[in-house]
Structures are given as structure tokens and as C-alpha cells.
Design brief:
Blueprint (H helix, E strand, L loop, with lengths): L9 H10 L3 H14 L2 H21 L3 H15 L5 E2 L2 E2 H18 L14
Antiparallel strand pairs: 1-2
Helix pairs in contact: 1-2, 2-3, 3-4, 4-5
């Protein structure tokens, strides 16, 4: 995505991939961001990675893995404001909580609509 002399925006790429339900690729993009971050921002990006991978686990039928990672990821994300780093984080947390509550409670063959990240 980044041309010559341009810096690749891994965070924005991760958002686009997440919204395209390409959770493995999203995790890979955000990992590039995570490697460069420190402190709270590192924890924030790790939380995003964990919830993305939790959705991937749910898609693959690994509901125990989905439960574990979703709890870890949401726990990290809950400490940030409802709008953070240009995304509607409060909306995302609500959508993820509802998604994982349904998935973990009933382990459906057809998963509910996947949450999306809204840029604000």
C-alpha cells in the first residue's frame, strides 16, 4: 500500500482488513504496529489483535479459544475512551461483547454478523 518514499499505514490497513472479515491478515498488519508501540498504546493494539483472532477462532469452531482471547482483548480495550485513535471504540466494544456473548453461549453453526470498526 505504501509507495516509494511513503510510510505504510499498518493501522489503517488493519482496520480495512478487520472490516473485510480478514482477521488473520488484520492481525498481521496490526502486529507491525504493536511491535513499534510502547505502554498503553501497545496494550491497545494488543487488545485489537486479540479480539480479531478471537473472531477467527469462533469462525473455526474453537469456541474455548474465542472465549479466552475475547476476554483478554476486551479487558485491555475497556480502559480506553469511547473514541480512541480515530475509531469508535465504545461502539466496537459493545458490538464485540454482544457477538461473543451469543457465540460463546450457543456455539452456533452460523455465526452472527461480525462486528465492524467505525472510523470517527
Amino acid at each position: 500500500m505504501g509507495g516509494r518514499g511513503q510510510r505504510r499505514d499498518w493501522f489503517a490497513e488493519g482496520i480495512a482488513l478487520f472490516n473485510d472479515a480478514r482477521y488473520f491478515e488484520c492481525h498481521e498488519a496490526w502486529e507491525q504496529v504493536w511491535l513499534r508501540e510502547q505502554g498503553d498504546e501497545k496494550r491497545f493494539v494488543q487488545g485489537l489483535i486479540q479480539v480479531a483472532v478471537a473472531i477467527l477462532h469462533a469462525e473455526r469452531g474453537n469456541f474455548a479459544g474465542a472465549k479466552s482471547l475475547s476476554e483478554k482483548g476486551l479487558d485491555k480495550l475497556k480502559t480506553f475512551p469511547s473514541e480512541h485513535r480515530g475509531i469508535a471504540l465504545g461502539d466496537l466494544r459493545d458490538a464485540l461483547s454482544a457477538f461473543f456473548a451469543e457465540v460463546i453461549e450457543s456455539a452456533p453453526a452460523d455465526l452472527p454478523t461480525r462486528p465492524k470498526l467505525r472510523v470517527c
